[in-house]
Amino acid sequence: MFRSIKQWCIGALTAVVVLGAFDVSAQPNGEALFKAKCNTCHQPHADGTGPKLFGVRQKWADGGAKEGSIYTWVANWKAAAAADPYAASIVGVKPGEMQMFPDLAGKVDEINAIFEYIDAQPDPAEAAAGTDGAMAEGAATEEEEGGLGWIWIIIGLMFVVIIMAVGGVRRQLNSAGKDAADEKSYMEEFKSWAWKNRKYVGLGGLVVVISLFVMLFLAGYSIGVVENYQPSQPIAFPHDIHTGTNGIDCKYCHNSVTKSKSAGLPTVNVCMNCHKQIKGRTPAQAEKITAIYKAAGWNGDAYTGKTSPIIWNKVHVLPDHVYFNHSQHVVVGGLDCKQCHGDMTKQNETARVVPVQDLNKIEGNIPLTKATLTMGWCIECHGEKEISEGALDTKGSGYYNEIHKRLLNNDKKLYGKYLEDGKVTVKELGGWECAKCHY
Amino acid sequence: MKVKFKAMMQISVVALLAAACSADPDSPGLEYMPDMYRSPAVEPYVDYGEVRGKIHDDMKMTMSALTPPKHTIPYWGTDSATVSMMLPYHRLPAAAFALTHGMFGFDFSTNPDGNYEYNLAAADMNPIKLTSAEQSDAVFAEGKALYQANCNHCHGEKGDGQGPMVTAGSYVGVPVYKNLTIAEGQMFYSIYYGKGMMGSHASMLNKKEIWTLVHYVRRFQDANYGKFDPKTGLPVVAAPPVVPPAEGESAMPPAANAPK
């Protein structure tokens, strides 16, 4: 009895395994086929180069398509359009032409497997809708926290008013008991008090005057210093998502950085290289991306040609009397963007001028003391920074190799003193000459 | 009089405090010499609607970051090979590219077949010839830097369509280079004008850079492409490994995330 049950079990198990294996081999893999053949242009729930495919069989049936013409279409859309008026009516839904798949001709099972895989995909828009409420709540608490600052200012102002009012009442009470002629003004009272304590008042006065001068001097230093300057932008662009999560190189969007003195703001066509497909996962993101579509003249299906520029606010503003060249620093100097602009993979707000303290934390940076984007900051770095690996060994950009060869051949005596410490800094190549940057 | 003075002092202190709190966040702050800070000559990314305090409404947002006039030929020195390589691209975009890729301001192909020019491009050969191991290495080093900056985030470090954008789940449908069956001239056409979801890169890369990238991409298809035998000094791959497809045949490669 036991034996027969055991045998039966083994038999059943074998049958399941064999049938399962048979199933896998016989059933076309819809996911693999979809991803290999369709996914470059089609998505289940979003229009791309081609229209979305969720429930497309039902759509065709509802539209009055001939039985089976959808399978013809997948393999050869021209043949389907010739045979079926419904198929002919959807030619030109998208501006591009669908390509032919002769290898799928007549393979109804495989095409059905693709459609079944597509119809089994959940709609990401519905999934995102569930998280919207939570996000809105988060925003509300943030706003309340932001409002607290104003409460403190109002409380402070109320204190000032109360102190002034009390002082006024005291003065009224003081003067009430005295004759009008006897009354001393604040100034006279102060004068007699100051004369009595003239040593301390003199010393105190000196301290006040000196500190005022120092403050004036410091205030003068802060003019033209733009550390932490973070102007508002028409689109709250999150650098961390683009360069952090998605790993896009800075030079993809700021693509004139290796060729021009300006690093360049990406034109909208660069945004559209990705955002034609990426429409945003949350309503907040979608709204920001809509601003790109408006600028690019993209109506969701096609470009309309009606473009409007996005007006960004410039963050790193250098005065006109300074010449700065990005390509010189990036190509010849071999600097990484983050050495001057900070780690943008963590910058989730709009761009700002990163303070020098934060820049000093970046690996490989020379610790500097002067504020970012000031002349002191520039020449401090030029004084210490060795020119890119180049000159003395032959690696690096090699930009300075030729001049070094000539200098070493011509006048070793003169040039030797620069090489004594075994390194060549930017300063030694004229990086501190006024006319290098001011002309 | 004295009371008035005192009141004025109090009000001005309060006003100063208020002014300090509500400074314009879009203002970069005080400048020593605004006339030396603002250039009246044209500079990129400067709005010339206001120059030295004067407002010119007709100049607002008009003078910076302009595209060069149509049919402009850039100056690339006197080396004829370089000049001919850098001449404007002779293949035209299909008319539909205006709608699908926003290619306005271009001359368009008048042929009704949307793939006419693309098919013609199969005949274009890479003008950057790989002649020796050193020269080839230099081209591939340059190609690697360009690829890292411009292609890597979608197409992936190994050219398998598994770039960080795809693995992060932001983007779908990136092809595997290995499965591409297109000629190098068509690779150029696709990078220049875009293809399918990919946008045009004509505004970002010049022709030399695109041809360098074409070399780099072909090594993903054949690991020996562009390599030279150290003994003989001859290229390891003699014949072009990729044969252009016959007209009308499927030219679109399978997507990256296809299970193998």
What do you see in this structure?
The complex is a heterodimer of chains A (439) and B (260). Chain A has helices at residues 2-26, 30-38, 56-62, 69-75, 77-83, 85-89, 108-119, 124-176, 186-196, 198-222, 239-245, 250-253, 268-275, 283-296, 326-332, 338-341, 356-360, 375-384, 401-410, 412-419, 434-437. With 439 residues, chain A is an all-alpha fold. Among the domains of chain A are: 38-129, Orthogonal Bundle (Cytochrome Bc1 Complex, Chain D, domain 2), CATH 1.10.760; 239-316, no CATH class; 328-437, no CATH class. In chain A, helix 4 (69-75) runs antiparallel to helix 5 (77-83) and helix 13 packs across helix 14 (283-296). Chain A is flat, with a radius of gyration of 37 Å. In chain A, 18% of the residues are buried. Mean pLDDT of chain A is 80; it is low at 15-25 and 132-147. Chain B is an all-alpha fold and 260 residues long. In chain B, 35% of the residues lie in helices and 2% in strands. In chain B, helix 6 packs across helix 10 (207-221) and helix 9 packs across helix 10. Chain B has a two-stranded antiparallel sheet. Residues 241-260 of chain B have low confidence and may be disordered. Chain B is elongated and about 95 Å long. Chain B has a domain at 81-221: Cytochrome c-like domain (Cytochrome Bc1 Complex, Chain D, domain 2, Orthogonal Bundle). In chain B, a hairpin with a 2-residue loop joins strand 1 (50-51) and strand 2 (54-55). Chains A and B meet through helix 2, helix 8 and helix 13 of A and helix 1, helix 4, helix 6 and helix 7 of B.
